[in-house]
Write a structure and sequence with these properties.
The complex is a heterodimer of chains A (311) and B (506). Chain A is an alpha+beta fold and 311 residues long. Chain A has 5 helices and 12 strands. The longest helix of chain B is centred in the N-terminal third of the chain and has 32 residues, at 130-161. Chain B is mostly helical and 506 residues long. The chains are: A alpha+beta (311), B mainly alpha (506). At the A-B interface, α1, α2, β1 and β2 of A face α1, α3, α4, α6 and α7 of B.
Chain lengths: 311, 506
């Protein structure tokens, strides 16, 4: 403020430093120095986020879900319940309770084929990033390129791991590509994320290699097995075709897919640490709605609230 | 130190809350407010360019590194340090009007969001698409704008609690490090205003403001340099600014930053010294150039009743090493000031209506450079000084042909003469005399008030006893609240920069 020259010098230094950092991380995304820096910062900020989230997590979750679906008179009741729960439950217990549900579902659905580590979302990516941070890290056996799922379906893949936290690239990110199989036919294709689930439609884009196939709304998708089950284990439900975009002459058949997972309300997720011994194929999928589905009226939320699969 | 802690704590809290809660909210529109950006903007606005810059860089870097971040390191650091710096340059808006400050904060936030989006669009090509940005950006910007007044309000409250002053009259260099003052009281403020109004209303042709002097006298900036006050002519922008500041300090206008004292700093204004010595404010506003009576300038001040009327003294040579101020020559130390419309002969090719000029010189140098006799009264400038020595300075304001000019080898004191009617001999132009104009309503921070203010402050309060100690006492003029001319440096700057950025460079 007093010394303009010095301030300007400082500005120059800061700009150059920022540009150099950008250039360094652009050219070598996995350089050791930057990796170490990121790792250190990750552990520092990660533990801080864990601490903050353990306090504020329930509150944020409450508001986060409360805005989406404020269910009339239940709000007060939920608030009271929340206060009680906050008083008596730690975050670990909360996730354990959720884990019980999750593991029961997975055990039933996949015949005990996935082994998952439960984790809670503690931080969300800034700006346009579709990433979240989970409170499980390498000390829990998490490694990069593991599949992350929740009770509804595929969530994403682990991209970086710290000691106690890991970062997940959501399947809804535009840069995320997931190999899938169509449920009845086993046709192979892939979905790319639809960008921000917030604001945007949140629909995935499906492309199927066989251009001659006729896609129908309501068809379900599961992940296809990746090589060595990294990053995606087979059989995880991905979504359901919402609308088909017919393009005559296109190389691939294309459709829009409504994901099972609700990316705006992620809370308890599971990280698959051991792939299934057998490909569960389509056994994990939730049951199809009995009548011919009208895709517009069957959003993901509806399918979420249906009875757990396999029961 | 306390400020640093507060800033770091606020930024860390904003970062964590942003990542753990805000980004997870599913707000209508798809966007989310950016608390960290808001914090950086208000820190810049309330704290200045350098704090804003540093805070922006650090916060951006933290945002780049904190776990969910997956993009290139340095993106947010780049954007936020620019935004923080820019907001810091707009600090003056806080002293102008709250509305302007709110608008500035909103504009800075919008700029930050847009910059971040643009950079992400360019650098994170696979992950960020135009559709994504278009979906998220508008609502984010709206949330940010909605939150920015709140954030700014909170920031100003916190800053005030931490001792930052946003009083427009405290936009003073004296408050900066090495400055001399504590905030001026309300009483002093009112006094200043009253005096200013009186001068403006009843002054008539009273030209006493330092403003016009400052403005016109910059024509002789090079002369100041030649005399040896400064190291040579002003070739750089910085040197020009410095010279303008010196001239402003000498002619009664206050410098825009960094109060300057010729010779040693008066004890009362010493930043380190306890404010025990009470230095009364200047009384230059009582000077009437047309009175022509030496000594008519009283030291009657902003708090007139509290101070005995006294002759105005200007002593440039007070204190330890006059040579320091006078360019290294010892024993010379009597700068002289002549205000005349005619221009000093023998100096430089005088132009038509040259403004008042200032000639500082010691006797020897003056003789050498002017090539005439002794002293600097050459050219018929009145009441200038012959020889060295100490004694009370006098100021004579005359409109006539300035008696006592050029004679008298025995005067020991510098004198100042304000004259508009130099004899035609010494005038270089035939046109009408340059008449100083007194125009109201330019900058508040322009001149005068700071020096006067700082003196008031160092005096503890306005109602002080008579000042003791010498020094450049009479320099401050409370007229300076209105300034009709800008020093040359300011003029040049104004050409290059928009008018509303005038105080941005601080």
């Amino acid at each position: 403020m007093h010394d303009t020259g010095r301030t300007r010098l400082l500005l120059g230094v800061a700009l150059i430093a920022a540009l150099a950092l950008i250039a360094a991380s652009y050219s070598s995304g996995s350089s050791s120095v930057l990796g170490a820096v990121r790792h250190t910062a990750g552990s520092v900020f990660g533990s801080a986020e864990r601490a903050v989230s353990s306090v504020t997590g329930p509150v944020g979750r409450f508001f986060g879900s409360g805005i989406v679906g404020a269910r009339g008179g239940q709000v007060e009741q939920l608030q009271r319940k929340l206060a009680r729960m906050r008083a008596e439950l730690s975050a670990a217990q909360l996730s354990k309770a959720d884990y019980a549900e999750l593991s029961r579902m997975l055990a039933l659905a996949g015949a005990g084929t996935y082994r998952v580590v439960p984790a809670t979302v503690i931080a969300f990516g800034q700006g346009y990033q579709r990433t979240v941070t989970l409170d499980a890290g390498s000390s829990d056996g998490i490694k990069p390129q593991m599949t992350v799922l929740d009770g509804d379906g595929l969530v994403g893949q682990v991209v970086s791991v710290d000691a106690t936290t890991c970062t997940v690239l959501l399947a809804s990110a535009t840069s995320s590509v997931v190999g899938v199989r169509l449920a009845p036919s086993g046709q192979v294709g892939w979905v790319t994320g639809g960008g921000s689930a917030k604001g945007g439609t949140g629909l995935f884009k499906l492309q199927v290699l066989d251009s001659g196939i006729v896609l129908r709304p309501g068809e379900q998708l599961v992940t296809a097995a990746s090589v060595h089950d990294r990053p995606f284990v087979p059989g995880v439900p991905v979504g359901v075709i919402a609308s088909v975009s017919d393009r005559a002459g296109a190389l691939t058949a294309q459709a829009l897919v409504r994901p099972y997972a609700d990316f705006t309300a992620l809370n308890v997720v599971g990280i698959v640490v051991a792939p299934p011994r057998h490909n569960p194929r389509f056994s994990v999928l939730p049951p199809k709605p009995a009548p011919a589905p009208t895709p517009k009226s069957t959003p993901a939320k509806t399918s979420r609230t249906t009875s757990p699969p396999g029961q | 130190m306390k400020r640093l802690i507060v800033v770091v704590a606020v930024l860390a809290a904003a970062l964590l809350v942003q990542l753990t809660i805000i980004n997870g909210l599913d707000l209508p529109g798809g966007g989310a407010p950016d608390l960290v950006l808001l914090c950086v903007v208000v820190i810049g606005l309330a704290g200045g360019a350098q704090p804003g810059l540093v805070a922006g860089f650090c916060a951006g870097l933290a945002l780049d590194l904190a776990p969910p971040a997956n993009e290139l390191i340095g993106q947010y650091a780049l954007v936020f340090c620019l935004v923080g710096y820019g907001a810091g340059r707009m600090t003056f808006t806080l002293r102008q009007s709250p509305l302007l400050a709110f608008a500035t904060a909103a504009a800075a936030v919008v700029t930050g969001e847009a910059l971040a989006a643009g950079l992400a669009l360019v650098l994170d090509t696979p992950q960020v698409t135009l559709a994504t940005v278009a979906a998220v950006l508008p609502s984010s910007v709206l949330y940010d704008i909605a939150l920015s007044p709140l954030a700014l309000f909170a920031a100003v409250k916190i800053a005030v609690a931490l001792g930052v002053s946003f009083n427009p009259l405290d936009d003073s260099p004296a408050l900066e490090r090495g400055g001399s003052a504590a905030p001026i009281g309300l009483a002093g403020l009112a006094g200043l205003r009253r005096v200013t109004n009186a001068v403006v209303a009843g002054g008539g042709p009273a030209v006493g403001s330092g403003g016009w002097v400052t403005g016109d006298s910059t024509a002789s900036v090079a002369a100041v340099g030649e005399v040896g006050w400064l190291r040579g002519p002003a070739t750089s922008r910085r040197a020009r600014r410095e010279q303008a500041r010196l001239i402003a300090a000498l002619t009664g206008a206050a410098p825009r930053k960094g109060a300057f004292w010729v010779g040693s700093r008066p004890p009362g204004l010493n930043p380190g010294a306890a404010a025990t010595s009470v230095t009364p404010p200047s009384g230059l506003h009582r000077l009437h150039p047309s009175s022509g009576v030496a000594g008519s300038a009283t030291r009657d001040s902003l708090a007139p009743r509290a101070l005995p009327a006294k002759d105005l003294k200007i002593d440039f040579s007070h204190g330890g090493s006059p040579g320091a101020a006078a360019g290294g020559r010892e024993g010379v130390s009597t700068p002289r000031i002549a205000f005349g419309s005619g221009g000093l002969p023998g100096r430089r090719p005088a132009r038509g209506r040259s403004g008042p000029r200032i000639n500082f010189s010691g006797s020897g140098r003056s003789a050498a450079s002017a090539g005439r006799g002794t002293g600097l009264g050459h050219g018929g400038l009145p009441a200038t000084v012959r020889g060295d020595g100490h004694g009370p300075a006098k100021i004579a304001f005359g409109t006539g042909s300035l008696p006592r000019a050029g004679s008298g080898g025995r005067r020991k004191v510098p004198r100042i003469a304000f004259g508009t009617g130099l004899s035609a001999l010494h005038r270089s132009g035939t046109g009408p005399m340059a008449r100083p104009r007194f125009r109201a309503g330019s900058a508040r921070s322009a001149s005068g008030s700071w020096l006067a203010g700082s003196r008031l402050r160092s005096a503890g309060l306005v109602t002080g006893g008579p000042g003791r100690g010498a020094g450049f006492r009479g320099g401050g003029s409370s007229y300076g609240l209105r300034r009709s001319h800008w020093p040359k440096a300011a003029k040049m700057r104004r050409k290059r920069r928009p008018r509303w950025l005038r105080w941005g460079r601080r």
